Structure formats: C-alpha cells, structure tokens
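Q: My labmate handed me this sequence with no annotations at all. I'd like to see what the chain might look like in three dimensions before we decide whether it's worth expressing. Could you predict it?
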Amino acid sequence: MIAFPQAKINIGLRITGVRPDGYHELETLFYKIPLCDALEVVPAERDALDDGGFGDPEQNIVVRAMTLMREEGVPVPPLEVILRKRIPTGAGLGGGSSDASSMLLMLRQLYAPDLSDKRLADMALRLGADCPFFLTKSPQIGRGVGELLSPSPLDLSDWVLTLILPGIHVSTAEAYQEIGISAPPEPLEEILRRPVTEWRNRVVNDFEIPVFARHPELAEIKDQLYAAGATYASMSGSGSSIYALSTAPLTRLSTPYTTYSYLL
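A: Here is what I predict for the chain of 264 residues:
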C-alpha cells in the first residue's frame, strides 16, 4: 500500500497559556496543502526501512508508529517501509507528523479495520501533538497543545499558495523557549470568517517575533511576498517556511530559495 502524506500550513498561531506540565496551549488553524511525501509498506521477511538515508531508523517516527501499533495489539507482520521525503524538516509543515499518521491509517486499513477513530487519535497523540490533525480530511481549528480539534469551514479554493522554503532548520523546542503568551483580541475562528483581504495584521503567528529575531532573512521573505502582491503572508508553525495567499501567481517575486506555487 502507498500513501502520500500531505504537508500543512498554520493559518494563525497564538500561544494562549502554559499548562502545569510545561506544555504551551495554542490556537491555530491547520490547513493541508499539496506538498507531499511518499510512504509505502511492502510485506517482508523482517522489518526494514528505506528512507534514502534520511536519518536514524530507530528514531524515525514512521517506525515508531508501526511499533506503537504492535504494542497496542495490532498483528502487524514484518514490513519494509519505503519513505521518500519532499516535505523538509524544521520548516513548520508537519511532514514527520503527517508521515506517522499516514502510517497509522494504512496499518489500520490493512490489519485492524475495526480500530475506532478515537483509539487511533489517542495513538497519534502519543506520537506528536499535531498527529491527530493528519487523521482528518478537513481544515481544523486546533487548541490545547494542538490535539483539541474542531472542523473549520474555511475554503481557500481558487487561491494561489506560494510556499518558500529557505532551508533553515528551526528547532521547535528552542522556539517555544523564547515564545511569549498573547491575549488574542478575538478568537481565531471569528477572525477567519473575515475575507482573506482583511487577514493581514489580524491573523498572527506569535512565533514570528522570536524566529524573525534569530533569522531576519525570514522577515525579508515575508516583506518580499507582500511587495510582489500577496494578499496575506505568514510563517507556518515555528518556521522556517513562509507562505503567501494571492488571487494570481506572484510573477514579480524573485528569490533564490526553493519556491512552490499551487492553486488550492
């Protein structure tokens, strides 16, 4: 079986508090975008991971998802896992989490079709705070640490997404250490009911302040997107990817960084 785990962008990201266990509470909207990895599972004599030398197999979140399934009693046989990455790490696009959730979905379909959505979401949360989102199909407002999800009617069809990947790895843990707590003037869900033309300076990512201070070139990219005609631009997650929404392709944009353009 093969799947194509999608990346996501965060539309707005406010840090609203800190829990007693030290985890930050947030409010954001998760929105899937066309950028994908490729993940395949093939029956094998023993477990194997082919990820193109991407990292340590023992720490690979896809392998952890398969191990978790077995620990939960699902009879997963030996598999060769083939993972091809296009979603960069440390870019705020959720690639690893999407890979893990796609693995859970595939293994359920193959070996545990009676496994409930609730139990699968609980397993996903054990792998990562935003993993439960990638089990869903629609945009979701995320609260708590990102695991409390509610569907959003937001539809960006016919908007052009420009995604810039500067190649800078931003440590999520370090970004959280420098983040402040904000008091949004109104819930994100209400702000997103406004037209995209009214989002600028209203739909805010709190991580931009500390991350832009460390990497001023990211702030420059955002400014360049607006100068090229973007209706709305933001950093995704804790960075470093920067995206823009526009009504037409940004033909005046010139950047040395990897850039994708999609009609959503």
